UniProtKB/TrEMBL annotation:
Gene3D superfamilies: 3.30.70.100. GO terms for molecular function: blue light photoreceptor activity; FAD binding. This is BLUF domain-containing protein. Residues 3-94 form the BLUF domain.
Length: 155
């Protein structure tokens, strides 16, 4: 089955609380489970960068919910298209707290074709490389996580 992915950035609503953010991510985890969607959500305190992957129908349904959400505005799509395989196969939605610089670097990186760098010399230069690096380093550090509804850390 071919997988699709979408990446976007947006501005968080001014009145978005940490508690509401946690609730939104928990709701996304539940929805994504039923839609077979995985991905990660970066948040720097005022902006989001989200990457979703899965079957086309699941991605379309999840993105429709995102577009209708009142928790953010100014959505800018970074890329949308086919991907060969999942990059986050075990994370229904991983929430990662990052600083403004890290989110900004990922947002302005090359999202063309959702490619990863071909050589170790280029490691970390594509948007997907940077996203994976930040998401995985936060996981290994035990930071920025959100719990799945079953109490397990969303990975």
């Amino acid at each position: 089955m071919p997988f699709r992915a979408i990446a976007y950035v947006s501005e968080a609503s001014r009145n978005l609380t940490e508690q509401r953010l946690q609730e939104l991510v928990a709701e996304a985890v539940q929805f994504n489970e039923s839609a077979d969607v995985t991905g990660t959500l970066l948040f720097d305190g005022s902006r989001f960068l989200q990457y979703l992957e899965g079957p086309e129908a699941g991605i379309n349904a999840a993105y429709a919910r995102i577009l209708a959400a009142g928790s953010h505005s100014g959505i800018v799509e970074l890329n949308r298209g086919r991907v060969g395989r999942r990059q986050f196969p075990h994370w229904r939605m991983r929430s990662v707290r990052v600083d403004e610089l890290a989110l900004g670097k990922i947002a302005i990186s090359d999202w063309t074709g959702f490619v990863r760098s071909a050589s170790a010399l280029e490691s970390g230069t594509s948007a997907l490389d940077r996203l994976l690096s930040v998401s995985q380093s936060q996981t290994e550090a035990g930071a920025g996580g959100i719990m799945e509804p079953d109490g397990q850390l969303a990975r």
